[in-house]
Design a protein that fits this description.
The structure holds 2 protein chains of 2 kinds.
Chain A: E1 6-10, E2 13-19, E3 30-34, H1 37-45, H2 47-55, H3 68-80, H4 85-95, H5 97-107, H6 113-136, H7 143-148, H8 154-160, H9 165-168, H10 173-190, H11 194-201, H12 223-227, H13 238-249, H14 260-280, H15 283-291, E4 295-297, H16 309-314, H17 321-332, H18 344-352, H19 355-384, H20 388-412, H21 414-433, H22 442-451, H23 455-483, H24 512-515, H25 529-548, H26 550-581, H27 586-599, H28 601-606, H29 610-654, H30 661-676, H31 678-681, H32 691-699, H33 705-710, H34 731-745, H35 751-766, E5 771-772, H36 790-796, E6 797-798, H37 822-825, H38 839-847, H39 857-863, E7 868-870, H40 881-897, H41 906-919
Parallel strand pairs in A: 4-7
Antiparallel strand pairs in A: 1-2, 2-3, 5-6
Helix pairs in contact in A: 3-6, 4-6, 19-26, 20-21, 21-23, 22-23, 26-27
Chain B: H1 2-10, E1 14-18, E2 24-30, E3 37-43, E4 54-58, H2 72-77, H3 79-87, E5 107-112, E6 119-124, E7 130-135, E8 139-144, E9 158-161, E10 168-171, E11 177-181, E12 185-189, E13 195-199, E14 206-211, E15 218-223, E16 227-232, E17 238-244, E18 248-253, E19 260-265, E20 269-274, E21 283-286, E22 292-297, E23 303-308, E24 313-317, E25 325-327, E26 335-340, E27 346-351, E28 356-360, H4 372-387, H5 392-399, H6 405-430, H7 442-445, E29 447-451
Classes of the chains: A mainly alpha, B alpha+beta.
Amino acid sequence: MGVMGLIYLYNGHIKICTEDVAQTPATSVARFCQISYPIWQHCRQQKDFCDSLAGSGAEFTTTDRLPAHVCTCCWRWSLYGGFNMAKILKKNKVSTKGTKKTLNKNTGTEKTPEKSSSAKRRERKRKTVGKLKGTLKTTKKSPIEKLDLDNVDEDELLNEGEEIIPSEDEGGSDDDRKHQKLLEAISALGGKKKRRLAERSEATIQISEFSVDAKGEGEKINLSDLIQTIAKTPAVSAQTKSHLKKLKLEEKTVDSPLTKPETERIQRNVAFQKSSEEVSRWQSIVKQNLKAEQLVFPLNQEAPGPKPLEQVVCGWKARTPLEQEIFRLLSVNKQPINDPVLTPIEEESLKAMSLEDAKIRRAELQKARALQSYYEAKARRERSIKSKKYHKVQNKAKRKEFVKKFDEMLKSDPVSALEELQKLELGRMKERMSLKHQNSGKWAKSKAIMAKYDDGARKAMQQQLEVNKDLTQKLATTLSDEEGEDDGETSEPDMLPDFVNEVEPGQDPANPWMRGQLSKDPVDLTEPSVPETAAAVLISEDEEEGPEETEEEGLLRGFAERRKQRQEQEAENEAAKNQDMEVMTEENKAGAEKAVASHDAADADIADDDEEEEEELSKFTNLFQELKDSRMEAEASAMVAEVSEPECAQLQQAMFRIKSLEDMDLLDQEEQADPAEPNAEAPQPAPLESKGADKKRKRKRGIDLAEVLTKEATVINVPLAPTAVEGAEGAAHGQEEQRDVIKEAFAGDDVISDFLKDKRREEEAGRPKVVDLTLPGWGEWGGQGLQPSKKKRRRFRLKTAPPPPRKDGGLASVIISEKRDSSVSMHQVGALPHPFLLPEQFEVTMRAPVGATWNTRQAVKKITMPKIVTKVGAIIQPMSRDDLLKHSRKQEEEGTAGEPKKRKAPQRKRSQKRHKKTKN
Amino acid sequence: MNATKLERVLAKPFLASLDGHRDAVNCMAKHSTSLSTLLSGACDGEVNTHTITICFIIAYCIDFYEKEFTPFYYVCEDPSLHLLDIFGGKLSTFNPKVKVWNLTKHNCVRTIQAHEGFVRGMVVRFCGTSFYSIGDDKTIKQWNMEAPGYGVEEEPINTILGKTVFTGLDHHQKNGTFATCGQTVDIWDEQRSTPIRSFSWGVESFSSVRFNPVETELLASCASDRSIVLYDMRESMPLKKVIMTMRSNTLSWNPMEAFYFTCANEDYNLYTYDMRYLEKPVTVHMDHVSAVLDVDYSPTGREFVSASFDKSIRIFPKENRNSREVYHTKRMQHVVCVKWSADNKYVMSGSDEMNIRLWKANAAEKLGVLSHREKLAANYNQKLKEKFQYHPKVKRIARHRHLPKHIFTEAKEHTVMREARRRKESNVRKHSKPGAVPMLSEREKHVVAVVK
């Protein structure tokens, strides 16, 4: 341990004064170092710590001797209510006996024992007082009290401290003076303790303290130093020890407490948050009231009229023994007490299912069953038909239907359509792998024998071969695509949708249709997300509906299973039969094939009819083609959209300026012109654009198609993003670039001539036209090749008076429209009023009549319903928390029911319910 | 057009003037359960004597035409009738079988000498059986609503002597607690003579304090240091305050929308705040040409009425910037206090020239019994007015109000001043660095700071 110093309480901190005895014994300047905060905190929190330090006689392993004035000060501090320092000091002295002696010899200054003994006694007195004070933990006591405690254990102390005596009386009057000074300095720090200082000074007169060499001087005192001994003392509780250990571990100091204003601010903030949250609960009710079509104040008014009996009875209680008996009986039997209509069981059953629902459900089930049996019978009948032609027609019809369905599916549910497609693809693969249509079967061999003589047989074989060829060719091409195109097999462009596997830059790789059978990984699919989600929604809906219809479904499933079993049995029988007859004839062969096909569902889908297959194939190839085309179109349109997106905004802006049909014509022209000039439009004019350029751009909307097309549009490659002006390059350079960009942007169009044209057109439109009212053959001969006479013509050609000169006649660069009629505009609404977003909306509202002449009575009543109705003579109370509760409950109900309900008339609702109940 | 014209023709808002005070009316209080009762406190300008009168006034006609078909017990349950019963030997003629009741008694029922000096505030207890008053004599007094018998002296039920002068008073909506303001904002329990809570934040004096009628534990007060302070009765600290460019005189909470309140400011404007977002007001209502002294919400929470030093009262829709109505009379002086009746039909204003005036809330509304056809016609006309309100000619008629000369000229002057200010600002903006003079909306201009 370092230098044991004095602990001093100053402004709420503990300070330890280490004394540099060895280096500056003469001055004994006190160095103050601050104990880290946690110690202080800890000492304060744990009063028992102080107690334990004092009471248990904790040992402190100091080798240093403590000077007398240190003791004094320690004593003083302990008096203030810290832990018992006197005790510590005492222990120190005991442990440092040996060194003291040697020191004394070295210094060689000894004083008479009598003198020292008196000093010692005083010293001891102080110590004991301190100790006692420490244990009692009194904060402050008068010196008189201290003196009362003097007698305690004096002898013991005397014996103990015998050897200290010679060490203490070292030093002369000089040291005393200095010590006095020091004490004064210290006490000055503490303030207001002057009186007691004087008291103490006489005690230290003869005690010198500067004969100590300071080992480990300059070290700070640590908590660990102080509490080391605690571990050894059994009297200290385990809890305290663990606390101290914890303290040891955490090195950092605790932050100083916040200032009062800061804490207050935090408190205020917290409180404000809380109350604003509370207030926010009203938000929904406020919103609802604002939106309500009609509010009747006072809000929570009870509807007039007779109340339901239950409510009236509700407050009544059974008092007489008879009544109580009756009520007990009722409650035991779960009979309704308040609501005399329904028992809880009845209510439950009602809740479970109403009669009508049940009826509907039963009817549905019946219908399902009937349909089931009907279809089963039909299927059986069909299967028993042996006509080949019939089946052919059937298959054809089926296929057609399938194709139709597939088309629909393409639009509605592309995912499942893709699955279907893949199924087909798989069927084709299987077909290729099998030896079907290879002319290698028994039937084919027999045919081969017959082929020489039988034309029909030859034809049949050829047909089969063709089918085979078609299939293999087709599949080979797809295969070659899959494997790579180095096979060199030429593929028919019609048959092969070659775009399937190509990664075209323009095409969307995400589209499942474009990729065909390659993959249907939905993760990659970005584009068809909408139909997918739609499908997902459908599925989820199905899932939701699932539990409701379990019974039905179960029934249906049972039927289906039974039917399947039956089918299988039949098919097996048939197969067996066919196998027997297989050798015999074509028909039988076909039948057998069919039977086999019936075993394999996928095969059945593909079927065996060649033309139909071809048809199907061509259908699908067409489909692919269509898809491709549509894809391309879509892309093109997307591109156009991309290009014309800023255009659209401009057009919308331009809409405000439309004032006549001619303007509309102009607009049309623009629309035509637009695709021709994306190049010129693409680069956005850069930010530093001048005003003139801006004007130009605005004007440019009136571009004439012919005009634009006559000029040769210079094709410019411009980066998509507007070129930014680099600051480092200098402003001049930037401006030049800017100008270039602008020039580029408007390279294709001649703005001025456009404007002039526009103006001319306006003028033309404004000029009065000659009205020709001549009727050929009226008043003279008419017919082919005859013209009305000049006289007539002159007479009936009406020239209207020339209009007043145009306002913009003298202004070269302005077009002033003269279409505005001031006499009408006086009565027109100047700007679109607030709640309306579109002029059309406003016009519609204005057009809709309100009065009874044009509407039915009910409609008028509804239209003219005032928004707020107050009742005369009724006090409207402010909204209360009950309203909020009601509102939230209602909202919850709505949330569960999933349908909005009306705010008004809870009474009526209740009565309706009752009505229903009684009906049931 | 016709409907609008008719409305203007029939707009006769002034109903009655209630006199009886011998000095300017300083405060008023609505009765919490009776529509026909109004309390008003005045200040007597005469030197030394300081006689103060508090009047009970049966204020205006009560029409029972709405209830003509309802059974008898229903009518009896009506709270206003109860009180009429209490007050009235005069009501002995009451007969439930009479279908139309037209009682117009504008007379003072009771006069109490309550305080020495101004009566600063008055409030009726939520149950309506007693009321509180505060005055310049540093006392809070509780009075019985029922007048004492003949020959018995008027004495308060309870008197609390405070340390400082109280300037504002409000009662809790449901509990027996009330709040006063002066040097601090104090929350009192009715049973105790010392405040149960006392809020202060900085050194200021408060001019008014109001309980939130919906979220009943919240309060707001206007302080003389131009701030509006929010409190929660349950907390030991105030919640937040907003400092404005000028002082607010009073404020009023919206009784239907818990988080909105409107304050009447010295800068001729009213500001509606959302208490959660004090950074800028929701709406600035500007039409007055002098300091606004009082504001009160209609019980439906859709409109409020404001009283101004410019001798007029105005009615604002809560979301509009401009007023929809202005009331004034030749003899009405500075209006100090204003109240909107609890049935949303009438407005009461108390002014400096010792009178309380009774106005219709809707100027053109017909009072009294309306036949079914009349009702339908009124609704239809209302709808028509709404529909065609945007048309310039209709708008011109609907907006036209006759104003006293001083208001008219001052309003003109203010527009000129505003324009000048705007122009100057734009000029400054033009000649300073871009962004140095920010564009501030009208709403942002008046808030100096929000102190958390």
